[in-house]
Amino acid sequence: MRLPDHGANPRQLYKRFGLEAPEKILDFSENCNPEGPPQAVLDVWPDLVGKLSSYPHPDGEPFKQAAAAFHGVDSSRLLAGNGAAELLALLAARYRGKRAIIVHPTFSEYEATLRANGVRIQPIVASEENGFHLPTQPILDALEQADVIYLCTPNNPTGVLPPREELRAIILRAQQVGTEVILDEAFIDFVDESLSFIPELDEFPHVIVVRSMTKMYAIPGIRLGYITAEPSIIGEMKKTAPHWNVNGIAAEIGAICLGEQEYRERAIKHAKVEREKMAAFLRAEGCMVTDSVSNFLSFSLREGQDARTLYSDMLAKGIVLRHSENFNGMDGRWLRVGMKSETDLNLLKEELYRWFAAN
After folding, report:
1. Are the beta carbons of 126 and 330 closer than 8 angstroms?
2. Rounded to an integer, what distance in angstroms lies between the CA atom of residue 16 and that of residue 9?
């Protein structure tokens, strides 16, 4: 049975397995901030009803200006979109019929959107034995034959963040050979905003940075993201984007979220504390664990244990993990866990402990 390509749809998953979904599901397959949306968003929610009868701003204001100010860039360098998924689709159209490098394992939407546009894909697979760290030399060797390379920093599903010097080496080589670089920073705000490459885009006009609002601010239901790039690239992409592609309520909420500094600091601290506790627990049980810096981690089981069995056994307990069957290089042998509340993670550890003891 083919499993869903994405997490965060647990009831559909139970339906596919022919199982009755329990009343309470602990969904660790998605990786949004477990705190939920900022209180400032909840406070203003009743006032947003008035926006329903008005068309949204065609450029996604006031969010676009707020995001530009947040990063200290001119708004001409920013395009807002209906989630990073729409922006990735627009980017894929930019490379229609061209050649792209994808470094696996990584977010499945890169390949899905590129293939839909007839892009020839050269896969480079990071080594499991090397902790899925970026295979820098093979990438450098391949860049001259590609029009674009996609890099997820930190990577989804491993959570590994490539060292800055390695990323710069790739970016510099790509600049020399005329290859564009897509940096997907959807989870960089769970690490440290200072690690973003957005402040360096003046130096690297061939780099396009993709950002998501839905993970940090726990607002996946409204879909909101943005890209930063050279104004000419933004202008080209704007022409292909649907009119009013950012709804008015999303634009208002996004602008509020960017002002929530203490909220972000709490999220970063929580993710780090819970990730380190979960990693220690899994390693004590003989698992291999990725060197994640984000709000999730991936792990593989010790010899003799089967990931698909653990996945289905946890499902029967009302616990949903993220499988890796559609991640090239992980091939179903790894599972991903999003960092939720301490209470929910303790419940997960209790069930895992029982499973490890019996298997």
Report:
1. no
2. 11
DSSP-derived secondary structure letter, 325: T
Asked which of 205, 232, 257 is the last residue of a domain, the reply is 257
Same domain for 76 and 139? yes
CATH of the domain at 210: 3.40.640.10
What pLDDT does residue 18 have? 76
On whether the CB atoms of residues 112 and 123 are closer than 8 A, the answer is no
SS (H, E, C) 65-78: HHHHHHHCCCHHHE
331 and 227 part of one domain:
no
CB 167 within 8 A of CB 151: yes
CB 219 within 8 A of CB 257: yes
Domain that holds residue 135: 54-257
> Cα separation of 177 and 145, whole Å?
9
Which tens digit of pLDDT belongs to each residue from 188-222?
999 999 999 999 999 999 999 999 999 999 999 99
Q: Is 130 exposed, middle or buried (0-12, 13-18, 19+ CB in 10 A)?
A: exposed
Radius of gyration of the chain (CA): 20
* % of the chain with per-residue pLDDT over 70: 98
Tokens of 245: 């592609």
Which residues does 168 contact at the CB level (< 8 Å), separation at least 6? none
Q: Is 288 found in the same domain as 179?
A: no
Asked if residue 131 belongs to a domain, the reply is yes
User: What pLDDT digit, counting tens, does each position of 321-348 carry?
Assistant: 999 988 999 989 999 999 999 999 999 9
Distance of CA 88 to the CA centre of its chain: 12
- Does pTM surpass 0.85? yes
Q: Per the domain annotation, does 2 fall within a domain?
A: no
CATH code, domain carrying 20: 3.90.1150.10
Cβ-based neighbours of 305, under 8 Å, separated by 6 or more: 356, 359
Mean pLDDT of the chain: 94
pLDDT digits (tens, 9 = 90+) for 155-168: 999 999 999 999 99
49 within some domain? no
Q: Are 331 and 212 part of one and the same domain?
A: no
